[in-house]
Amino acid sequence: MRVFLFNILFFSTTFFVAAIALLASIGPGSGRIRWCLRQQCRFINWLARVVLGARIEVRGLEQFKDGERPALIVSKHQSELDVFTPLAIYPDLSAVAMAELARYPLIGPVLRKLDYILVSVEGKRVNQLDQVMEGARKAHAQGRPILIYPEGELMRIGSRQRYRSGVWHIYNDLGVPATPVALSCGLVWPQRKWIKRVNQTCVIEFLPPIAPGLDKGAFMERLEATIESNTMRLIREHGAPEDVAIAEERHRLGLNNDDPKAQPVDAAKGAAGST
């Protein structure tokens, strides 16, 4: 019943706020839209706490002092929660999003008004890097944080996907630190699932930034190792034993979302004697 109530309130309020944001997109500027989105993101986090009994911890923001903000946020992506929470903190952030979303009547005008970095994922995907870099330079010049998910999709807990090198091009071209973000939001709200977990804690942790200057190979290796190892640490910290076992097995085998789902019994067999 609690999950059902959460889902009904989530979808109904999201549709309502999207309609208001669409109306706000007609006027000049994006301030009103960003205010609406920030309130909705805060409401969804509140809804998760009150209705689901979830506890969403945000760690690591204390490293940014005196109004300082991360220029480039590079995050694991497991859940809608790891979209809403950064938006509640930095409502003016820019993010890399699918250009195809701009085709939808309710979403398109809002995305364009928010000036997100829209990249086409259909067809031959030509000029993607040019699109990303143009948007990143513009956002950085405006002093807006840039959020990017280097795997490019929502991941199951424990799953890994190839990290795409577009993030290095932004990091290298802008000459800014990259702030890795590890998280365990999939424990509360698994990858686009109707079912949510009640009374579950999850964490979004902003890790120490990677200073500018690394070459592509060194940067990508360090970024992936940092995010993946800390994400697994957070899953172990609060995950139920069965969830941790599945995540550990998927991570050990390097499974992505398309691979068959690992089961807890597989983890036990793998630890005992798989090659």
Structure description:
With 275 residues, this protein is an alpha/beta fold. The protein has one domain (55-273): Glycerol-3-phosphate (1)-acyltransferase. The protein is built from 9 helices and 7 strands; from the N terminus they run H-H-E-E-H-E-H-E-H-E-H-E-E-H-H-H. It has helices spanning 2-24, 31-50, 81-89, 108-114, 128-141, 166-174, 216-238, 241-253, 264-273, and strands at 55-59, 72-75, 94-98, 117-119, 146-148, 178-183, 201-206. A 7-stranded mixed sheet has the order 1-7-6-2-5-3-4, sandwiched between helices. Helix 4 (108-114) links the parallel strand 3 (94-98) and strand 4 (117-119). The longest helix has 23 residues, at 2-24. It is globular. The model is unreliable at 263-275 (pLDDT under 50).
Short description:
This protein is 47% helix and 12% strand. The chain has helices at residues 2-24, 31-50, 81-89, 108-114, 128-141, 166-174, 216-238, 241-253, 264-273; strands spanning 55-59, 72-75, 94-98, 117-119, 146-148, 178-183, 201-206.
Helix percentage range: 40-55%
Please tell me the total number of domains. Answer: 1
How many H/I helical runs?
9
CATH class: Alpha Beta
Identify the strand order in the major beta sheet. Answer: 1-7-6-2-5-3-4
User: Count of DSSP E strands?
Assistant: 7
Written as H for each helix and E for each strand, in order along the chain, the element string is HHEEHEHEHEHEEHHH
From the alpha carbons, calculate the radius of gyration and give it in angstroms.
19 Å
Report the portion of residues in β strands: 5-15%
CATH level-two architecture: 3-Layer(aba) Sandwich
Average of the residue pLDDT scores: 86
Distance between the termini: 44 Å
Shape: globular
Q: Report the sheet with the most strands, covering strand number, pairing sense and barrel closure.
A: 7 strands, mixed
Low-confidence runs of at least 5 consecutive residues: 263-275
